[in-house]
Specification:
nine-stranded mixed sheet, 381 residues, two-stranded antiparallel sheet, binds coenzyme A, alpha+beta, Peroxisomal Thiolase, Chain A, domain 1
C-alpha cells in the first residue's frame, strides 16, 4: 500500500478578534436589557432572568481568552448579537470559499506544490455556506485546479475525516495529490445570547496537502502511519439549522437553530470515548503512548484536552506534550487540531511520532498517527 504524507499545512486567521471582556460586556448589556424588558414577567415568575457572564468563568471552564472572528460587525451589538455582512453576488467568491482559498494557498506553498500538482479538493467543515454548488468546487475553480471536489461534514472531526478520505483516494490511485481544507466560520452557529455557550467558538481556516510520501518535498512533511474514524449518535451537541426549517416557519429563529450542547454530558462521555479510541488505535499499530513525541488534539476546552492527554500519555501533559491554542483562538471546530499541528510540529525530527486526534458533535472522533518524514528508512517506501 502506498504510504501517504501530509506534505504541507496552511492556516488562515481572520485579523479581527473579540476578547472575553468585550464578549462579556456585550452579553451582560443584552441580559440587562432583556431583564428590564421582561421585568413584570420575571417578577411574576413566568420568565427567567438572565444571569451575568464573566471572564473568570470562561477562562476557568474553557481556557479561552479571545477568539478571531471573520465578521466582527454586529456580534457585540446587544440589539443584534450576530455577524452582519451584506450578501455577495453569485459571481463573487463566497466568504467560506475566500478563507478556504487563503489557507489552501499557504498549504500549497508549505508543500512546495502548485495547483497544477493537485487533483482533488475536499472542503471538510462543521457547516457549509450553501448546499450546492459545493464550496469545494468553488475553491477548486478559484485555485485553478483540475479534477474533482466535494464538501464533507463531520462537525469538529471534519479535518481528520477529510484526511482519511484524501489519503484513501490517493492510495487507491484516484488522485496524485489532494487539498483537504477546513474553513470554519463558527460564529455563524454560535449563540451570543446564550451564557452557557457564547464564549466557545472562534473562526479560522486550515488546509493540508496530501500526496504519496515518496513525492513529499515540504519542509515539514509527515507520513501517515494509520488513520481511524469512529462515530456514535448523540444529541448532546446539536444544531437544527437546515433547509427543512422553512417547513415550520414559526420556529425558524428558535435557539436550537444555533449550537445547543449539554456541556457536562459531553465532557463525561467524550473523554473516555476519545482516550480509549486513541489508545486502541496506537495499540493496533504497536505504538506505546510513552513513545509519542506530541499530541495535537481537537481544541475543545482546556480541561477536556488536559484530561484526554493525561489518559493517553499516562502522565500530566506538559505544554509541549499536548499544545493548546485555546487561549488565542477558542474552539475553532475542525481547524483546532490542525492549527496545533501547524504551529507545534516543525521542531520535531525525522522518525518522531505524533498523534493528531479530533472529536466532537455526532459524536465523531478521528485519529491520525503521524511520523515525521525525512529519515532514510521512511523515504524508501
Ligand atoms: N459566566 C459565568 N458563570 C457561568 C457561565 C458564564 N458564561 N456559564 C455558566 N455559568 C455558571 C453556571 O450557571 C453554573 O453555576 P451554578 O454552579 O451556580 O449552577 C456554573 O457556572 C457551572 O456551570 P457548568 O455548565 O456546570 O460549568 P462547567 O464547569 O461544566 O463548564 C463547559 C461548562 C461547557 C465549559 C464544560 O461542561 C465543558 O467543557 N464541556 C465540554 C463541552 C465541549 O467542549 N464541547 C465541544 C466538544 S467538541
Amino acid at each position: 500500500m502506498t504510504k501517504i504524507a501530509i506534505s504541507g499545512t496552511g492556516i488562515f486567521v481572520p485579523p479581527d478578534t473579540i476578547s472575553n471582556y468585550e464578549l462579556v460586556d456585550s452579553f451582560n448589556e443584552y441580559a440587562r436589557r432583556h431583564n428590564a424588558r421582561f421585568a413584570k414577567e420575571i417578577a411574576a415568575g413566568s420568565v427567567h432572568p438572565l444571569l451575568k457572564s464573566s471572564d473568570e468563568f470562561i477562562v476557568k471552564a474553557s481556557g479561552i481568552r479571545r477568539r478571531h472572528v471573520t465578521v466582527k460587525k454586529g456580534m457585540l451589538d446587544p440589539d443584534i448579537m450576530c455577524p452582519r455582512l451584506p450578501e455577495r453576488s453569485d459571481e463573487t467568491l463566497s466568504l467560506m470559499g475566500e478563507i478556504a482559498v487563503n489557507a489552501a494557498r499557504n498549504a500549497l506553498a508549505s508543500a512546495h506544490r502548485t495547483p497544477a500538482d493537485i487533483d482533488g479538493v475536499i472542503v471538510a467543515a462543521s457547516v457549509v455556506q450553501r448546499f450546492y454548488p459545493a464550496v469545494a468546487i468553488e475553491v477548486q475553480d478559484a485555485l485553478g485546479i483540475r479534477g474533482f471536489a466535494f464538501d464533507l461534514l463531520a462537525a469538529c472531526s471534519s479535518a481528520t475525516f477529510g484526511i482519511q478520505a484524501a489519503a484513501d483516494m490517493i492510495a487507491q490511485g484516484h488522485a496524485r495529490a489532494i487539498l483537504a481544507i477546513n474553513p470554519e466560520i463558527c460564529s455563524s452557529h454560535l449563540n451570543l445570547r446564550d451564557r452557557e455557550t457564547h464564549f466557545i467558538f472562534g473562526d479560522a481556516a486550515t488546509a493540508c496537502v496530501l500526496e504519496p510520501a515518496r513525492a513529499a518535498d515540504g519542509d515539514n512533511a509527515w507520513e501517515i502511519v494509520s488513520t481511524r474514524l469512529e462515530s456514535r449518535y448523540s444529541n448532546n451537541i446539536r444544531n437544527n439549522f437546515g433547509p427543512l426549517n422553512r417547513f415550520a416557519p414559526e420556529t425558524v429563529a428558535a435557539p436550537d437553530k444555533l449550537i445547543v450542547q449539554k456541556g457536562r454530558k459531553v465532557f463525561k462521555e467524550v473523554v473516555p470515548m476519545v482516550s480509549n479510541f486513541m489508545l486502541e488505535h496506537l495499540a493496533a499499530n504497536g505504538i506505546a503512548s510513552s513513545t509519542l513525541k506530541r499530541l495535537w488534539l481537537h481544541q475543545a476546552n482546556i480541561n477536556m484536552n488536559n484530561l484526554i492527554a493525561k489518559k493517553v500519555l499516562g502522565r500530566e501533559p506538559s505544554a509541549l506534550d499536548s499544545p493548546n491554542i485555546l487561549e488565542e483562538f477558542g474552539n475553532t471546530s475542525s481547524s483546532g487540531s490542525i492549527i496545533a499541528f501547524h504551529q507545534f510540529s516543525s521542531d520535531l525530527v525525522p522518525g518522531d511520532i505524533g498523534h493528531l486526534c479530533s472529536f466532537g458533535a455526532g459524536y465523531t472522533a478521528g485519529s491520525v498517527i503521524l511520523r515525521k518524514h525525512g529519515s532514510s528508512r521512511s523515504r524508501e517506501e
